[in-house]
Amino acid sequence: MSTVLSVDNLSAGYGRALAVRDVSFEVKEGEVVALLGRNGAGKTSTLLTLSGILKARGGTVSVGGRVVAPGRPYAATKAGIAHVPEERALFSGLTVRENLIIAGARGKSELAEVYELFPELERLIDRRAGLLSGGEQQMLALARALRQRPKVLMVDEMSLGLAPLICARLVSILRGLADTTGIAVVLVEQHLELALEAADRGYVLRHGSVVMSGTRDDLLLRRAELESSYLGGA
Ligand code: ATP
């Protein structure tokens, strides 16, 4: 499998403080990779840097072997990186349909594609996004991001505030997408169980650095260490 996303020695931060320190990881075609770590470990900042919102202080991000110009959200989007932020970035006063239209779903076939992946959205199409449940909002956010036809889909804390059943379903939808379309998925998660349910591999961040990485099975074997040292409470 070819490498879709390659992150090499990436550093970024706020003011003088570095939130991302020399982070390197890669995601191959059809892979789901989890970025794990407790609050403040630098997961969100890593995604923001990949999206060009936070300017890299060093290192490179490449998609399909081509370096993405740093600090420019448009360049990241153009390179094929889509980002579903923690807050989901929906227009809450607009309907589901309008949210999809703004993301570029203009015709029936595009809506049909959305319904195929997220059947719930069909009956909710004229409801305001702000009135949807958390799980439905997450589906809409994912559907919007997928309209970009990204090569890399990054999803930040998808599980936040959602019931376990819906999280499991969303994660399995992403797994299926990676398997069938080859899209490279980056899942930022605090929930180890959930992340490893779908992920092929994972990287654990602490104080902005990668401190552990491995395949799903490696990480499951080292779970006790992972949980006591790098996840859960401070
Ligand atoms: P969370 O799950 O809480 O989002 P995280 O692993 O994604 O945690 P980041 O949000 O990337 O972690 O935070 C990494 C570090 O950067 C933390 O020390 C945090 O306090 C700091 N930080 C994050 N956002 C800002 C900001 N806008 N200004 C200054 N410091 C920030």
Describe this structure in words.
The protein is built from 10 helices and 10 strands. It has 234 residues and is an alpha/beta fold. A 6-stranded mixed β-sheet has the order 6-7-8-3-9-10, sandwiched between helices. A 4-stranded antiparallel β-sheet has the order 2-1-4-5, with helices on one face. α7 (164-181) packs parallel to α8. The protein is globular. The N and C termini lie far apart (37 Å). 42% of the residues are buried. The structure holds adenosine-5'-triphosphate. Residues 14, 19, 37, 39-45 line the site of adenosine-5'-triphosphate.
Total E-strand runs: 10
In percent terms, what proportion of residues is strand? 25-35%
Unreliable stretches, pLDDT < 50, 5 or more residues? none
* Amino-to-carboxy terminus distance: 37 Å
Element-level helix/strand string: EEEHEEHEHHHHEHEHEEHH
Share of helical residues: 25-40%
Write down the Rg: 17 Å
Mean pLDDT figure: 93
The biggest beta sheet reads:
6 strands, mixed
Structural class call reads alpha/beta
Number of helices: 10
Strands in their spatial order, largest beta sheet:
6-7-8-3-9-10
The distinct ligands, each listed once, are: adenosine-5'-triphosphate
> Which overall shape is indicated by the principal axes computed on the Cα atoms?
globular
Protein name: ABC transporter ATP-binding protein
GO molecular function: ATP binding
Pfam families: ABC_tran (PF00005)
Domain ABC transporter: 5-232
SSE blueprint and pairings:
Blueprint (H helix, E strand, L loop, with lengths): L2 E12 L2 E12 L3 E5 L6 H8 L5 E8 L2 E2 L5 H7 L1 E4 L11 H7 L5 H10 L2 H4 L10 H13 L5 E5 L7 H18 L2 E6 L2 H7 L2 E6 L2 E7 H6 L1 H8 L4
Parallel strand pairs: 3-8, 3-9, 6-7, 7-8
Antiparallel strand pairs: 1-2, 1-4, 4-5, 9-10
Helix pairs in contact: 7-8
The chain binds adenosine-5'-triphosphate.
